Amino acid sequence: MENQLTKTNNEDMARLASKINAITAELGAVGQDGTNTQSHYNYTSYEQMNALMRKLLPAHGLSILPSVDDIKEYPYTTKNGTPGVRTLVKASFLIVDCETGFSIERKFVGADQDFGGKSSGQAVTECTKRFLLKLFHVSSKNDVDPDSRTIESGHTTVGWNGQNSQAGQQWEDGF
User: Fold this and answer.
1) What is the phi/psi pair of residue 99, to 5°?
2) CA-based angle 19:32:124, to the nearest 5?
3) Minimal CA–CA distance to 24: which of 140, 135, 136?
4) Are strands 62-77 and 34-36 parallel, antiparallel or unpaired?
5) Global confidence as pTM
6) Sign of torsion, CA 33 42 44 82?
7) Backbone phi, psi, residue 80, to 5°
8) Chain Cα centroid distance, residue 116
9) Among 8, 11, 13, which Cα is nearest to 95's?
10) 115: pLDDT confidence band, cut at 50, 70 and 90?
């Protein structure tokens, strides 16, 4: 016989998952409204995702509370001699059902690089956007599958996700 606490948690998780599913269904494919002119690709902007979330989360009784757990910055120099900073971010996102108070926490990583001192803020924004895109299974219908291409330009000292990098070696907490 299932105890009452487990039954309540399962029911609360089911309600939360149903709300996430409803937002996923309502979002559908989200267009790529931004263009990176340097690297020549289109993307779904944080501003667009945030505007959608400001409407959908309250309408479905959900709240997502972000928290930055760790930030690591790594200086680098381009092949042209320009100094920059690469930032890796670990964050937690508390997803709360505002009706029941039930919540789950999920962790996510993000990264960015910049030449003008904005790398940390950009990495936090990128992490948040990517978390939302993955949580709600957002596709633009023009997404490039990471398996469809490889980088042939050589070894990267700091990877996007911390793998094969200094950051990956320093974050040995299982995250």
Assistant:
1) -85, -40
2) 70
3) 136
4) unpaired
5) 0.78
6) negative
7) -90, 0
8) 23
9) 13
10) confident
165 contacts 157 by C-beta, under 8 angstroms: yes
Partners of 62 in the beta sheet? 97
Find how far residue 19's CA is from the centre of its chain: 19
Q: Is 118 helix (H, G, I), strand (E, B) or coil?
A: coil
Average pLDDT over residues 15-32: 94
Angle at 110 between CA 38 and CA 31, to 5 degrees: 60
Distance CA 55, CA 50 (A): 9
Token reading at 71: 């930030």
CA dist list (Å): 46 to 4, 61, 117, 132: 41, 21, 19, 9
Q: Which of 114, 104, 77 is nearest to 10 (CA)?
A: 104
Q: Are 62 and 19 in contact (CB under 8 A)?
A: yes
What distance in Å separates the CA atoms of residue 156 and residue 148, rounded to the nearest whole number? 19
Q: How long is the chain?
A: 175
Residue type, 138: V
Alpha helix segments (H runs only) across 28-44: none
Over residues 39-69, the pLDDT tens digits come to 888 889 999 999 999 999 999 999 999 999 9
Could you give the CA distance from residue 121 to residue 72 in angstroms, rounded to a whole number?
A: 12
Distances (CA, A) of 93 to 4, 73, 74, 118, 139: 27, 21, 24, 22, 21
